[in-house]
């Protein structure tokens, strides 16, 4: 029994060990990898993805899945840019209203997602995937396929302003992560997410309003997707339908690689942080060591399988679906 | 919000007509099969004009469509008379949409198309030709397929040769770097023809500059975010050794500029390709040294015009010389010197083109590397 517990404890740290192992490997091939400036670069590229992945973590903890992130991020990015430009184009003026406005949009989209899933009893996989497409269509409709530029230097200081070598955006993402941690560990809602993921029947018979909680989970996810959209716009200064591209793969992969179980009930936002860093370190490292690009996608896939293999305990799984 | 309303109306119409088309298509195909082809045809009085292309998330295709619409307006029709067939990057969808269209309208179709990939061009052209309709294509066509093998029905094919212009931008870049230092190239999707040609042009230019060190090439798939990440990877790998960046498209250049801005680097020489409005704007500001404009607005209009006027019998394609059937589209180098003038002329407003002047902007017959 003791040995089992020790094993269990050890397994918890495997994603972090994978991350350190990868960093050591890339450093061995090209010592430039292990530099403060490179870490700052990885932090910038990881910030938007971290927000989206943290959002979907809550949903995955409940044992559901949210695949609407590409559409939600696209809509939020585009609406954020439109609101900011309509409100004077600067965060310093009324433009700051665009930030809560965008978070609100994200929450609404999440609520619609949750309502469709719960009220119409459509599996979250299908409901969210379809809504993602609706989101992409909607953002295309709003922009007519064009891109919106954000020139406001104060907003762009999220990227350009450095504190201790790291971009302001990275600190903002860290702060959001701490809030997510608080929600996860210290609020009733957060604890209930685990309860639903651990066993929905039990949760229901203990008197939890599972449907309402699920909708809340999607709303929280939507708000974090909106944050991700804002960071993505800050990083490139461009809002367009393509802003949402690739977030589905990166975020879901990160959550799983970080050790949060897709069946729900175990894992959390710190796992997601490690997972996001693993995926971004792989992406950055492959360019840094000069791996030919036709190898990169294949290697990324293999590394993800390896990371998941190492970080999930298959003995506890009765079956895999 | 009226633009959304207009858009929805337009799209509903398109969607509705496409659904009807598909329904008619099933009946049409049976009829066509029973009757067989070879019915004598008169020139179409009022052929339906359609554009088949990839998507609307890309400024390039938006310009193509704006050209198609400008042409349709020049005929006194409304822009909703242009039928949009969006293939979303799928050759199967491209072909089946076109077949539905043909089954509905038969020979009364003037089609402009990018067949999405090279092998798909032949079935598209054969389907159009069987129906007795008219098609002009751009970009994707295999080397063994020629308009003149299909009489009048395969009106023309236009593509762009990117090797020369890409070499020009590379030379401008190397000159700006003072003829020495390290350079990196960010390429498009490795199997795309423009990506291959733009890299080739870049390599050609390198030959004349022995002190330029070619550090690395990496595909960033025409994508802004990916280019941004690739560029930060390059900065870690080569650091200050990078003195210039050669990008195979404008969209990737935006990602590079932001990756550099994040590091506080504002004056790195960068060149790009495509001549999108935002890139031209950046050229006027000196953030990009040069880009290459391929005039998609004109291409979108003229490709539709060629098919349309062949269908109405305004000109007879088979009577035209080969250089009028397969030709290169225009490429214009935009540099910091002429960007302002260029912007006023081509970006702020689109010049009014004479859509019956088919070939004056072309750059000669397509040459094949055997």
General description of the model:
The complex is a heterodimer of chains A (321) and B (370). With 321 residues, chain A is mainly α. Chain A has a single domain, classed as ABC transporter involved in vitamin B12 uptake, BtuC, CATH 1.10.3470. Chain A is built from 14 helices and 4 strands. In chain A, α3 packs parallel to α8, α8 crosses α9 and α13 runs antiparallel to α14. The longest helix of chain A has 27 residues. The radius of gyration of chain A is 20 Å and the shape is globular. Chain B is of the alpha/beta class. Chain B folds into 2 domains: 194 residues, Response regulator (Rossmann fold, 3-Layer(aba) Sandwich), CATH 3.40.50.2300; 131 residues, Response regulator (Rossmann fold, 3-Layer(aba) Sandwich), CATH 3.40.50.2300. Chain B contains 11 helices and 12 strands. In chain B, the strands form 3 sheets. Chain B has a 6-stranded parallel β-sheet with strand order 2-1-3-4-5-11, sandwiched between helices. At the A-B interface, α3, α6, α7, α11 and α13 of A face α1, α2, β7, α7 and α8 of B.
Number of strands of chain B: 12
**Secondary structure category of chain A:** mainly alpha
CATH class category name of chain A: Mainly Alpha
Instruction: Name the assembly state.
Output: heterodimer
- Average pLDDT of chain A, rounded to a whole number, is 91
Q: Level of helix content of chain A?
A: over 70%
**Kindly, what is the distance between the CA atoms of the first and last residues of chain B, rounded to a whole number of angstroms?**
54 Å
């Amino acid at each position: 029994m003791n040995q089992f517990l020790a094993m269990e404890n050890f397994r918890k740290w495997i994603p972090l060990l994978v991350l350190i192992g990868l960093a050591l490997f890339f450093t061995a091939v090209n010592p430039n990898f292990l530099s403060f400036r490179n870490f700052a670069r990885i932090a910038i590229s990881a910030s938007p993805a971290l927000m989206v992945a943290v959002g979907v973590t809550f949903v995955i903890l409940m044992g559901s899945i949210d695949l609407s992130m590409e559409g939600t991020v696209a809509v939020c990015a585009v609406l954020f840019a439109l609101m900011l430009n309509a409100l004077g184009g600067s965060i310093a003026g009324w433009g700051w209203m665009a930030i809560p406005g965008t978070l609100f949009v994200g929450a609404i989209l999440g609520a619609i997602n949750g309502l469709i899933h719960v009220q119409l009893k459509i599996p979250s996989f299908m409901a969210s995937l379809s809504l993602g497409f609706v989101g992409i269509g909607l953002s295309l409709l709003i922009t007519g396929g064009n891109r919106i530029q954000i020139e406001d230097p104060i907003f762009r200081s999220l990227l350009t302003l450095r504190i201790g070598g790291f971009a302001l955006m990275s600190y903002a993402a860290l702060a959001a992560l701490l809030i997510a941690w608080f929600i996860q560990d210290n609020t009733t809602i957060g604890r209930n997410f685990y309860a639903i993921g651990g066993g929905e029947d039990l949760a229901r018979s203990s008197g939890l309003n599972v449907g309402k909680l699920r909708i809340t989970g999607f709303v929280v996810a939507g708000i974090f997707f909106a944050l991700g959209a804002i960071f993505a716009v800050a990083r490139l200064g461009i809002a367009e339908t393509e802003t949402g591209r690739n977030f589905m793969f990166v975020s879901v992969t990160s959550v799983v690689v970080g050790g949060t179980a897709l069946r729900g009930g175990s894992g959390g936002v710190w796992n997601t942080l490690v997972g996001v860093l693993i995926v971004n370190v792989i992406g950055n490292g492959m360019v840094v060591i000069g791996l030919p690009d036709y190898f990169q996608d294949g290697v990324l896939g293999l590394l993800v399988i390896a990371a998941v293999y190492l970080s999930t305990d298959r003995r506890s799984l009765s079956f895999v679906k | 919000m009226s633009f959304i309303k207009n858009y929805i109306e337009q799209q509903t119409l398109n969607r509705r007509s496409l659904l009807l088309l598909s329904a008619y298509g099933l009946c049409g195909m049976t009829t066509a099969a029973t009757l067989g082809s070879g019915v004598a045809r008169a020139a179409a009085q009022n052929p339906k004009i359609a554009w088949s292309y990839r998507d609307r998330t890309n400024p390039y295709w938006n310009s193509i469509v704006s050209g198609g619409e400008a042409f349709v307006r020049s005929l006194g029709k409304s822009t909703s008379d242009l039928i949009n067939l969006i293939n979303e990057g799928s050759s199967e969808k491209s072909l089946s949409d076109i077949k539905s269209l043909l089954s509905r309208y038969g020979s009364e179709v003037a089609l402009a198309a990018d067949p999405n990939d090279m092998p798909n061009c032949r079935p598209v052209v054969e389907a159009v030709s069987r129906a007795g309709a008219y098609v002009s294509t751009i970009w994707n066509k295999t080397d063994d397929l020629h308009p003149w093998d299909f009489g009048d029905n395969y009106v023309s094919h236009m593509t762009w040769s990117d090797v020369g212009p890409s070499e020009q931008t590379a030379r401008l870049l190397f000159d700006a770097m003072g003829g020495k230092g390290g350079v990196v190239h960010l390429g498009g999707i490795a199997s795309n023809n423009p990506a291959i040609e733009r890299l080739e042009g870049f390599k050609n230019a390198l030959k004349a500059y022995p002190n330029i060190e070619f550090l690395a090439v990496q595909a960033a798939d025409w994508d802004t975010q990916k280019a941004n990440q690739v560029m930060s990877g390059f900065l870690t790998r080569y650091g200050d050794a990078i003195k210039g960046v050669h990008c195979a498209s404008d969209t990737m250049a935006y990602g590079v500029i932001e990756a550099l801005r994040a590091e506080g680097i504002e004056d790195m020489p960068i060149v790009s390709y495509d001549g999108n409005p935002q890139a031209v704007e950046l050229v006027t500001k000196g953030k990009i040294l040069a880009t290459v404009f391929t005039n998609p607005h004109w291409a979108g209009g003229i490709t539709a015009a060629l098919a349309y006027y062949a269908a109405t019998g305004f000109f007879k394609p088979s009577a035209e010389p080969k250089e009028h059937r397969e030709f290169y589209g225009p490429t214009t180098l935009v540099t910091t010197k002429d960007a302002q003038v260029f912007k006023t002329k081509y970006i702020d407003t689109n010049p009014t083109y004479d859509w019956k002047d088919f070939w004056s902007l072309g750059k000669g017959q397509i040459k094949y590397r055997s």
